[in-house]
Amino acid sequence: MDRLTALRLFLRTLDRGGIAAAGRSLGLSATAASRALRDLEDELALRLFDRTTRHVAPTEAGRRLAARIMPLLESLDAAMVEAREMHEEATGTLRVVARRSYALRHVVPHLAGFRAAHPRVEIDLELTEQTGLVPAHGVDLVIRLGLPAGKSFIGHRLASGRRILCASPGYIARHGAPASPEAVLQHPCLIYREADEAPIWVFTTADGARQEVAVSGPFRSNSGEALRQAALDGMGLVLLPEWMLGEDVASGRLTPLLPGLPAWPGRYQAEIHAVHLRADRLPAKIAAFVAHLLAVADPAA
Fold first, then answer.
1. 149-175 mean pLDDT
2. Contact 131/145 with Cβ under 8 angstroms?
3. Domain-by-domain residue ranges, the chain?
């Protein structure tokens, strides 16, 4: 018998007042329980009980051992219960790293609803514009562009990779709208900044060909929200995700350009996914949060 079980049997014997009753409570025969306690005494090289045919009583050494190990085992039992609850009931701190622009529009507005449904979960949210992030180093969930390579991760699609080329009605009134990908070169473009890479917008033409356009313009940023605001203010053309510009297009604040030609900026064509580590039993806090995000996500996006 392992030492931990033997110590539990020792405490149970004190509580029940007899070895046989303690053994039964742990699924052990009286003989097996008695042998286990004698083995524990041999290991400790001391006597834990004074035994008679009808009664067992702890020795002074037994009482001291019980006083020391009882709070330790109670703390261990509580930790085991807490760990089990984290798989069965959403509880604990959920650490999320999320793509900034997506999180501000489609995650943060729904946190209150999630907390109302799962009040025992605390949320630690970090916003970033970095790409290639994966759950690691204490991070439970990553909301990112695309799926990471490898079989260690599970992804849940939250939004499509569709991009929209847009400008404000005011800008179009002043400068007109491009009629072709080549004509985009005649307009100031608002560019998502990529380190050490020329800004390229890629179009799929009517015949299915790929056409790359090296764009330039008066404003670059690593923030999609900043580029969106610049487009609303009439500074030029912008190419951003539909999940970011959909409401602006629907309200008329931005007007789609070249709508029949799918386009995307350089490497940024991926969908938005919520990604966590693969697990046989996913912690309930992660499962609940992913289910919440999927429930509030726009199914058409």
1. 93
2. yes
3. 3-85, 92-160+271-296, 163-265
